[in-house]
Design a protein that fits this description.
Number of helices: 7
Strand content: 15-25%
Structural class: alpha/beta
Number of strands: 10
Largest sheet: 7 strands, mixed
Order of helices and strands: HEHEHEEHEHEEHHEEE
Length: 235
């Protein structure tokens, strides 16, 4: 009897490990204003996923300053020579291996009808490694449509297995992102497409607290600025 129980336990664990290894999701995001970070926090309260935040190598830049001069300059450099690595702004080194994931969800802001330059850098460097993987795209913008961002993504990740729909969250519906994300996950049939048997229940949302870099915190701080269940809190 003991051996049968032990065998059952081992088989169950092996099944769990295999399922976990083949169905893992990575959410890759860049957030300049904080909107994309809030989207990611909401998304990861609904699905099991790891997170990777893209950070520019040069800190403190104001891409919108002087009538958007710097942001426009970066995008124009990429547009002029999209196949040249030197056209893309430098980002912090990436330690996360895409070999560990079958599904990649990209969350990015729109910059003047194009994908944010820093996210383009990441996808230029790592997009080829996403070939054959499930790829989802969520775009945050003020009001502009996302067709240019979709085109950038497909240029940089040409061989990804894209979900049937992209998700656009703009300024007017950002506060309704929880429902928008739920509806999107249903529309793309996320569970079936990824092979993940279940998403997190959203009937009673667990309290999830992140710092401003998107890292999960073990307890709520007594003071400071942080994200709690998708909302910014200042204490």
């Amino acid at each position: 009897m003991y051996m049968k129980k032990l065998l059952f336990f081992v088989c169950t664990m092996l099944t769990w490990l295999c399922t976990d290894a083949t169905a893992k999701t990575l959410v890759v995001y860049y957030s300049y204003t904080g909107n994309c970070r809030e989207i990611v926090t909401t998304l990861t309260s609904q699905i099991q996923a790891d997170m990777l935040e893209i950070q520019p190598a040069e800190k403190g830049l104001k891409y919108e300053a002087n009538n958007y001069a710097l942001g426009t300059q970066l995008l124009n450099a990429i547009k002029a020579n999209p196949n040249d690595a030197g056209s893309y702004p430098a980002i912090d080194p990436i330690a996360t291996s895409l070999d560990d994931y079958e599904t990649i969800i990209i969350v990015t802001p729109l910059w003047w009808s194009q994908m944010a330059a820093n996210m383009q850098t990441y996808l230029f460097n790592y997009g080829p490694q996403m070939a054959g993987k499930n790829v989802g795209l969520i775009v945050s913008s003020a009001s502009s449509g996302i067709s240019g961002v979709v085109a950038d993504c497909k240029r940089l990740v040409p061989d990804g297995k894209y979900f049937s729909e992209n998700l656009w969250i703009n300024h007017s519906n950002h506060s309704n992102r929880t429902t928008l994300i739920q509806d999107w996950l249903t529309a793309i049939d996320y569970n079936t497409a990824t092979g993940i048997s279940e998403t997190k229940t959203t009937t009673t949302t667990p309290t999830r607290i992140y710092d401003l870099r998107g890292r999960l915190m073990v307890e709520e701080p007594s003071k400071g600025i942080y994200i709690k269940n998708g909302k910014k809190v200042t204490r």
